[in-house]
Each structure stands twice: as structure tokens, then as C-alpha cells.
């Protein structure tokens, strides 16, 4: 089993090269990227078919019976599931189900060879109980969920550091079969860790998609546009509001002679942004104190009078007899009140 056919090795190397090119690409929505993903998926599927034809793995064997150079083929289903998630399709649910199935086959094969740790076996049992609500952490206890997330993060960090340490000396890996085998097994452990996180994400996405409204049947969108067209009159008038950029408002704004070809609005956006560059971070006053007082007087928010001037008695005009009589009667009334109410007359409880 250690002698790998050249055709399988060639297919694996081609598939790995495409996968690395996909992972280093950033334009994931382009047609060329999707074509590359489809080609990589096809290459990994051919690897799986060849593995079945030559019986590369057998359930009657243990992990010790697998040659070191054949261990990386256990990751075929994992890479296939990861690539399927990158495909674009209108039926997103079918892609997610397909990726979920590949992840399950990957874990099932590792379980047959006893390559799963006790914690991973426990997670696998939880997943098999109910894949739709699978989670790597508790969903009822926030504190336990946080601790579980921290533990999973530390495990992932340790696996990355271990992989980095083993990959630092490629020459030693060629001469030391034990170190090479540890590297392969560490890669498998890391992929298992990522698989459970992916299964949790797939379960959440499938739950969201299950609540999404069904897509409209074919031809319904065209029918809606036909209704809008029928509401238009012969001269093109319609009661529907046009969008911000309708067909009649497209094209150049000015002609070669400088004449406007369509309506436009002048905005001072550039000047406003330029004025706001060098300014304090607090609001500046918009009027002086005198202007504010004048505005308050106009609005009736200020009462005049009071202060020292309020104690100055106005002089009585001697020629105004009516005013003089009024002041005389007022003084007499005050004198009578003082005579009838001497000082201290109202102090009945605390007389000195």
C-alpha cells in the first residue's frame, strides 16, 4: 500500500496546486475563480475515485498500517468540502448539504482508524445526535460557552504553532520518518478542529436559509415588469416615480458648447468639507452677547427694571394737582395705618 500510483500522485499534486491558488486569490466572485474552484473540486473527486479503485484505505487496517506518504490522502474529503463551500449557485442549500456530507465522511473515516481524540469523539457524538443544532459550545450557559470558545481557540493556536515548528526544517522531515509522520498527523488534527467549526457554521447557515422566503417562480418577475409597462400611456407618462438615475437622465450633463443637456443641482459639498478640515472639536458661537440680548428683548424674554435704579423715587410735578392730591391721600392713609398698628403690635408670642 506504500507504493502510490503515479497517476494518483499526479492528480493529488494538481489538486493541491489549484487549492493553494484559490486560497491566495482575492477575486472570489469572478468567473475565472469559480472555474478554478470547479476544476479543483473535480480533481479531488478523481482522487477519491482512484483511492476506491486501488483500495488505498481499508476498514480492516489500523492507522499504523497506513504509510506516512499516504496519510495526506485522508484529507481529501476535508479539502473537497472546503472547496464546495466556495462554489456559487442559486441552490445554496444543496451546496451546504454536499459540504456537510463530505465533512461527515472525513470524520467517519478518521473514526474508523481511531485518529480522533476523546474530545473530538464527544463532539462527533453530539453532532450525530442532532446535526441541525450542532454547536461546539453550550448554547444555554453563556459562561460555559465563553470558556469553551477560549479553550477551542487555544487548541487551534497550539496546533498552528506545532505545525509551524515541524515545517521549519524540511530537510529533517525527509530523513526522519517519525517527524514526518507527526507532521501529517498534526495536519489531520488541525483539519479535524476546523471541521467541527465548519459544521457549526453550516448548521447556522442552513437554519437561516430554512427561514428565508422561497424564491419567486420563473416568469413572475417578468410579469411584474409587464404590469408596469401596461400602466404607461402612449406618450411614455407613468404615475410611478422614477428612480434617481432613470434612462432619460443618463448621458453627459453639458454639451460641447457648454449648454446643459439635463437638469442638475449645484452642491457646495466640496466647500463644506474643506471648511470643516481645520476647525475646533467644539461648537463655535453663532452670535455675540449683544446680539443675543437684543434677540431676547425682541422675543420678550427679558424684564427691565430692578437694581439700584428701582429705589429712586420719581419727582412729582407741582403743577399736576391731581397727581399731588393722589400722593397726599396716599401719605395720609399710611399715617393712619401706622397709628392704628404700632410697632410690635403683631408680636403676641414673643414680646420682649
UniProtKB/TrEMBL annotation:
Gene Ontology terms: cellular component: cytosol
Q: Where is this region: Disordered?
A: 209-257, 332-352
In its UniProt record, which GO terms are filed under biological process?
A: regulation of dephosphorylation; regulation of signal transduction
Please give one Gene Ontology molecular function term for this protein. protein phosphatase 2A binding
Where is the sequence biased in composition, kind Basic and acidic residues? 226-242, 332-342
The name on file for this protein is Phosphatase 2A-associated protein
Amino acid at each position: 500500500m506504500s507504493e502510490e500510483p503515479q497517476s494518483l500522485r499526479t492528480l493529488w499534486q494538481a489538486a493541491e496546486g489549484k487549492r493553494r491558488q484559490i486560497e491566495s486569490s482575492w477575486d472570489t466572485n469572478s468567473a475565472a475563480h469559480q472555474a478554478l474552484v470547479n476544476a479543483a473540486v473535480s480533481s479531488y473527486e478523481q482522487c477519491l475515485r482512484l483511492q476506491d479503485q486501488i483500495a488505498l484505505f481499508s476498514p480492516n487496517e489500523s492507522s499504523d498500517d497506513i504509510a506516512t506518504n499516504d496519510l495526506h490522502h485522508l484529507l481529501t474529503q476535508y479539502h473537497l468540502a472546503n472547496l464546495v463551500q466556495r462554489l456559487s449557485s442559486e441552490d445554496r442549500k444543496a451546496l451546504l448539504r454536499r459540504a456537510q456530507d463530505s465533512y461527515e465522511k472525513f470524520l467517519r473515516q478518521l473514526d474508523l482508524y481511531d485518529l480522533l481524540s476523546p474530545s473530538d469523539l464527544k463532539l462527533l457524538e453530539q453532532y450525530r445526535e442532532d446535526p441541525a443544532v450542532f454547536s461546539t459550545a453550550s448554547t444555554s450557559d453563556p459562561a460555559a460557552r465563553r470558556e469553551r470558545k477560549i479553550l477551542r481557540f487555544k487548541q487551534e493556536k497550539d496546533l498552528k504553532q506545532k505545525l509551524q515548528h515541524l515545517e521549519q526544517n524540511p530537510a529533517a522531515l525527509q530523513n526522519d520518518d517519525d517527524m514526518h509522520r507527526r507532521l501529517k498527523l498534526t495536519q489531520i488534527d488541525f483539519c479535524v478542529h476546523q471541521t467541527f467549526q465548519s459544521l457549526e457554521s453550516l448548521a447556522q447557515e442552513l437554519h437561516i436559509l430554512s427561514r428565508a422566503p422561497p424564491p419567486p417562480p420563473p416568469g413572475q418577475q417578468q410579469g411584474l415588469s409587464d404590469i408596469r409597462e401596461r400602466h404607461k400611456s402612449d406618450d411614455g407618462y407613468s404615475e410611478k416615480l422614477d428612480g434617481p438615475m432613470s434612462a432619460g437622465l443618463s448621458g453627459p450633463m453639458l454639451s460641447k458648447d457648454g449648454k446643459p443637456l439635463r437638469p442638475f443641482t449645484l452642491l457646495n459639498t466640496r466647500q463644506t468639507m474643506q471648511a470643516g478640515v481645520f476647525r475646533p472639536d467644539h461648537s463655535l458661537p453663532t452670535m455675540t452677547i449683544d446680539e443675543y440680548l437684543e434677540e431676547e428683548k425682541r422675543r420678550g424674554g427679558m424684564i427691565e427694571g430692578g437694581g439700584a435704579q428701582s429705589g429712586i423715587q420719581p419727582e412729582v410735578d407741582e403743577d399736576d394737582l391731581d397727581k399731588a392730591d393722589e400722593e397726599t391721600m396716599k401719605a395720609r392713609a399710611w399715617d393712619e395705618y401706622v397709628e392704628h398698628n404700632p410697632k410690635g403690635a403683631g408680636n403676641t408670642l414673643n414680646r420682649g
